[in-house]
Amino acid sequence: MNEPASNDTPPTTMPVCWWHPGRQTGLSCTRCGRAACPDCLREASVGYQCVDCVRAGREAQRRAHPRTVAGATLAPRPVVTPVLIAVNVLLYVVTVAQARSPLDNERATLFGDWVLWPRAIAGADQWWRLVTAGFLHYGPVHLAVNMFALWVLGRDMEAQLGRVRFIAVYLVSLLGGAVSVYLFDDSNRGTAGASGAIYGLLGGILVVVLRLRLNPTAAIGLIVLNLIISVTIPNISLLGHVGGLVVGAAVTAAMVFAPARGRVVWQAAAVVVLAAACVALVLYRDSQLASVACDYQGGELLCTTPSGA
Ligand SMILES: [Zn+2]
Ligand SMILES: [Zn+2]
Description:
The chain is mostly helical.
């Protein structure tokens, strides 16, 4: 390729492969120009590149797109966090419209159908309440407090985890909080709010801070402050918070401590195992509340239990 073939030139003057001195070749790398045999060349976007140049190109690409401790590429701005906030606000608006009251929006039919009411889950198999209640809020203050926390914590967590892992941590934490309420709370009381998921993000932030060896004082302070708020404000479920906190910390630990090799498999397995544990606990509580009987009377669900569980 470099030298025109001529009748006087014996074939031995052809260049040899840089990696295989015994092999003559007429080919060369389009990037570095070194002679290379077909075994040492890879097809590139333009021409063929030698194995060294291909490796160097991959390395440069990796440096240009650094990854976080969870294996996520750095995203310029949050997407999932504002979408979650929009969904919560939209559902609040729907309940306000139905109830015709911004404060007593729990009277809305959507609220009645979606709130975490343990007896309706056990007696009428309305299991969706374990998830949907996490998107409802009692009045504007409850909504505003949770959405502010979601904005602050969600942006940091989404940046560290990436979109898909972040939504997984959010939903598993939400489920963990709901299952904890279902297991331990008064079976005839309704619970709602994104707090379980938000506490999951709080626990997750603490884990990320520890993983990155940052000073954990601010994260611990944020958790203690929020636990104090949840004890002092009435109608807020401490159980849901603790359940979300524990599950959120556990799933985030799996995200940021998973080995780089097979990382996605470890991360997905952690989500599946935690979700399966939540389902197992729901089935266990179902058996405890087996005596609950529900019936629609005049369009309204009534649930009673002979034992008063
Ligand atoms: Zn090359
Ligand atoms: Zn070669």
